From TrEMBL:
<feature type="domain" description="Response regulatory">
    <location>
        <begin position="5"/>
        <end position="123"/>
    </location>
</feature>
<keyword id="KW-0597">Phosphoprotein</keyword>
<dbReference type="InterPro" id="IPR039420">
    <property type="entry name" value="WalR-like"/>
</dbReference>
<feature type="modified residue" description="4-aspartylphosphate">
    <location>
        <position position="56"/>
    </location>
</feature>
<dbReference type="Pfam" id="PF00196">
    <property type="entry name" value="GerE"/>
</dbReference>
<dbReference type="GO" id="GO:0000160">
    <property type="term" value="P:phosphorelay signal transduction system"/>
</dbReference>
<dbReference type="GO" id="GO:0006355">
    <property type="term" value="P:regulation of DNA-templated transcription"/>
</dbReference>
<feature type="domain" description="HTH luxR-type">
    <location>
        <begin position="148"/>
        <end position="213"/>
    </location>
</feature>
<dbReference type="InterPro" id="IPR011006">
    <property type="entry name" value="CheY-like_superfamily"/>
</dbReference>
<keyword id="KW-0238">DNA-binding</keyword>
<dbReference type="InterPro" id="IPR058245">
    <property type="entry name" value="NreC/VraR/RcsB-like_REC"/>
</dbReference>
<dbReference type="InterPro" id="IPR001789">
    <property type="entry name" value="Sig_transdc_resp-reg_receiver"/>
</dbReference>
<dbReference type="Pfam" id="PF00072">
    <property type="entry name" value="Response_reg"/>
</dbReference>
<dbReference type="InterPro" id="IPR000792">
    <property type="entry name" value="Tscrpt_reg_LuxR_C"/>
</dbReference>
<keyword id="KW-0805">Transcription regulation</keyword>
<dbReference type="GO" id="GO:0003677">
    <property type="term" value="F:DNA binding"/>
</dbReference>
<keyword id="KW-0804">Transcription</keyword>
């Protein structure tokens, strides 16, 4: 299998150097570019088409939300996944980045092994929902009194059950065990939910479910 190709986007050069060293010394990962602004991050992503971008949420020229939206929802059809980096786990900007297409977020003080695991998980197309920080963030967002509730489209009882399990951060294996179905069946239902709800990945499924009041 080819290496997971990573782009680092952060306005702190020292942090980029640290992450690059970690990535370059990890088998199966390679750093294919760096960016110090959101605009540069989009340009590098378009040029290199990496598997994963580590994206600082607060950057000059174009912030991490806008850059994430350009990469994940822009006209170029990039397959790139974005992991947002932030200093605070309830950063007000992080929810916007996830809504824009990010697959989850990490604190900048993340341990090296957790960062590597996160890159590999997201590169496979999964969302970075465990250990629950992303769900805490979304819960805090949807608890705001001015938030509008967006109803879910019509779906079957089983689809709702699977969506509820995804919302709790359960893996396909855990969902299969909970609902007494096969892994293949779970994958089929998750695929249907992604298509029906217009979601990029499981992180956006969680956002949509919480916005609809499903817990």
């Amino acid at each position: 299998m080819s290496d997971v190709r990573v782009v680092l986007a952060d306005d702190q050069a020292l942090l980029r150097v640290s992450f690059r060293m970690l990535i370059e010394h990890t088998p199966g990962l390679t750093c294919v570019g760096e960016a110090g602004t959101g605009k540069e991050a989009v340009e590098v992503a378009r040029r290199e088409r990496p598997d994963v971008v580590l994206m600082d949420v607060r950057m000059p020229e174009m912030n991490g939300i806008e850059a994430t939206r350009e990469i994940c929802q822009g006209a170029y059809g990039l397959p790139t996944r974005v992991i947002v980096l932030t200093t605070f786990d309830l950063d007000e900007y992080v929810f916007g980045a996830i809504r824009a297409g990010a697959s989850g977020f990490l604190l900048k003080e993340v341990m090296p092994d957790e960062l590597i695991r996160a890159i590999r998980v997201v590169a496979t197309g999964e969302a970075l929902l465990a250990p629950g920080a992303t769900r805490r963030l979304i819960s805090a967002y949807v608890a705001q009194p001015e938030r509008r509730v967006n109803p879910l489209p019509e779906m079957t009882l089983r689809e709702r059950e699977v969506l509820a399990q995804v919302t709790r951060g359960r893996s396909n294996e855990e969902i299969a065990a909970e609902l007494h179905v096969s892994m293949g069946t779970v994958k089929t239902y998750v695929g249907r939910l992604l298509a029906k709800l217009g979601a990029r990945d499981r992180a956006q499924l969680v956002v949509i479910a919480y916005e609809a009041g499903l817990r």
